[in-house]
Write a structure and sequence with these properties.
6 strands, 58 residues, single chain
C-alpha cells in the first residue's frame, strides 16, 4: 500500500476504500454497505463504474 486512504470516518459511519496492486482505486463502500466498484483497462484507464444494483457506467 502506498499511503492510500483506506477508510474515513464521519458522523454517519466509516467509508472504506480498496486498491489493486497497481495502486488504482477498485472499490468504495459507504457506511450503509453500498459498494461502488471501478474497472480499468490494461493501460490503467478507468473503463467502468459499477454502482449498487449492478448499474454500470462505461
Amino acid at each position: 500500500m502506498r499511503d492510500n486512504l483506506v477508510q474515513m470516518q464521519d458522523s454517519i459511519g466509516t467509508t472504506t476504500y480498496a486498491y489493486d496492486n497497481a495502486n488504482r482505486l477498485t472499490s468504495t463502500t459507504d457506511p450503509h454497505g453500498f459498494a461502488v466498484s471501478y474497472a480499468y483497462d490494461e493501460a490503467g484507464n478507468m473503463t467502468q463504474i459499477i454502482y449498487p444494483g449492478n448499474k454500470t457506467v462505461s
